[in-house]
Design brief:
Strand content of chain A: 15-25%
Oligomer: heterodimer
Distance between the termini of chain A: 27 Å
Largest interface: A-B, 30 and 23 residues
Number of helices of chain B: 4
Order of helices and strands of chain B: HHHH
Shape of chain B: globular
Strand order of the largest sheet of chain A: 13-14-12-11-10-9-8-15
Number of strands of chain A: 15
Radius of gyration of chain B: 12 Å
Structural class of chain B: mainly alpha
Strand content of chain B: under 5%
Order of helices and strands of chain A: EEEHEHEHEHEHHEHHEEEHEHEEE
Number of helices of chain A: 10
Helix content of chain B: 40-55%
Structural class of chain A: alpha/beta
Distance between the termini of chain B: 7 Å
Chain lengths: 352, 85
């Protein structure tokens, strides 16, 4: 299951398309009545459902090309389309940076040998394809993700929501609090279900700053914790008026008779300016107070998570023990911070 | 010293809806201080006043208001022998 892979297989996360004579037949600016290549709409839809994103690197007129894609009902599939006259290697580099993936996670399809060579030489990590490769593209292992979670199918929409959200935040004039209050945030807290485990594992691996210990948990370990009566495994999610952020937080609590210990608390860096981490913490503190137990928390200094230490201390934790880079903290459960009234919090019971 | 408070107030006013924060006003009671802001506040104090916020200083009470932050800075600068602005 989670055996270490000695050879890291390439996993394509973004497919970058040329347009003329690749995505469609014909050359747009020569006045051709272009027609979408057979099988392309199916490829776009199928990969999109797998959570693989699409983009464009085309030397064309941006308006005209976008208009044509809209007519075909395909425009929405593409993130950060690069339709201009710069080198395609530059376009691909920009796409990878915008989506925040490595170049080895990008594939590029183009009918022109010149363009394939330019990209291949400048960015040797990129997987290069020609239109002939499209016929069996959906069967290639590089385009079959190891995990398909319920977030895969909405990944593109999450990126699109993020693009709009960031634009709104940049354009917003006024204090941060005002902006947050207008987001209409809904924060969900739920016991982890089986369908959450892959994302939960990914969060333990990828979250650095708001991570209390840096300890990673495998799918199997998380599954055991989920079933253990002596543990609480909670998953947090967030959405706002722009759309969902998906599953963005995780808490592992060990429940002994008279004392609960928060073994891990993490929040994705995508939400660290949203103030929702303290909501999950306040929820746990309130639960512990109701259960009449002490509340402890592990902290390990990883060199990258000072923000989490500040968050714990500002939430009212004090140091109980210190052993090198490991701390044991305790909260006296007297003052528990409230959360802003503009965030709606939804708690789910097990099995929901 | 008022100069120092003005700097602290100017930093905080970028975040809060209420523009004129009083010296004693509890910023945490407003329910809005998120992790990023908390971290930025600690880093602001360190950078602006040239000091290091130690684990022992990371007490909510030291950062609760303009007044408390100013007192923390004064104490830190006093202890390390520097003279405040």
């Amino acid at each position: 299951m989670s055996e270490p892979e000695t050879i890291k297989k390439r996993q394509v996360k973004v497919l970058v398309w040329d347009l003329d004579d690749t995505l469609w037949h014909g050359t747009l600016l020569e006045g051709d009545t272009v027609q979408v290549r057979q099988g392309v709409p199916e490829i776009l839809r199928d990969l999109d459902q797998r959570g693989i994103l699409h983009s464009i690197a085309s030397k064309n007129d941006a308006e005209t090309a976008a208009e044509r894609l809209r007519t075909f009902g395909l425009l929405d599939y593409f993130l950060y389309p690069q339709i201009h006259w710069s080198a395609k290697s530059q376009s691909i580099r920009r796409i990878a940076e915008s989506i925040n993936v490595g170049l080895d996670a990008v594939a590029f399809v183009d009918d022109q040998p010149f363009e394939r060579e330019e990209v291949g030489q400048t960015l040797p990590e990129v997987m290069i394809l020609s239109p002939e490769d499209l016929s069996d593209l959906l069967e290639r292992p590089e385009l079959k993700p190891r995990f398909i979670t319920d977030e895969s199918a909405i990944r593109r929409r999450m990126y699109q929501a993020d693009i709009e959200r960031n634009r709104a935040e940049e354009e917003f004039q006024g204090p941060t609090e005002e902006f947050l209050a207008g987001l209409g945030m809904r924060f969900g807290i739920a016991p982890a279900g089986e369908a959450d485990l892959q994302r939960a594992e990914e969060l333990t691996v990828r979250t650095n700053q708001l991570n209390s210990t840096g300890v990673t948990y495998s799918y199997e370990e998380l599954d055991l914790l989920r079933r253990s009566p002596a543990h609480l495994l909670l998953v947090a999610s967030l959405e706002d008026r722009f759309g969902t952020y998906g599953k963005i937080g995780l808490a592992v609590v060990e429940k002994a008779q008279t004392c609960w210990t928060l073994r891990l608390l993490l929040m994705s860096c995508r939400v660290m300016s949203r103030g929702v981490g303290s909501i999950l913490l306040s929820h746990l503190l309130a639960e512990a107070r109701r259960a009449g137990v002490r509340f402890l928390a592990d902290f390990r200094d990883t060199g990258r998570n000072r923000m989490m230490k500040v968050a714990y201390r500002f939430a009212g934790f004090r140091e109980l023990e210190r052993d090198g880079d490991r701390l044991l903290l305790e909260h006296d459960l007297e003052a528990i911070q409230p959360w802003p009234e503009y965030v709606e919090v939804a708690l789910s019971q097990p099995g929901e | 010293m008022d100069d120092r408070k003005a700097k602290i107030r100017a930093f905080l006013s970028r975040f809060f809806r209420q523009h004129e924060l009083g010296d004693q006003e509890d910023i945490f009671a407003l329910g809005f201080v998120n992790s990023l802001l908390a971290m930025q506040l600690v880093q602001f104090v360190e950078k602006e006043f040239g000091l290091t916020v130690e684990d022992a200083d990371l007490d909510l009470d030291n950062f609760r208001s303009v007044q408390r932050i100013d007192e923390l800075v004064a104490r830190k600068l006093g202890v390390t022998g520097h003279v405040g602005a």
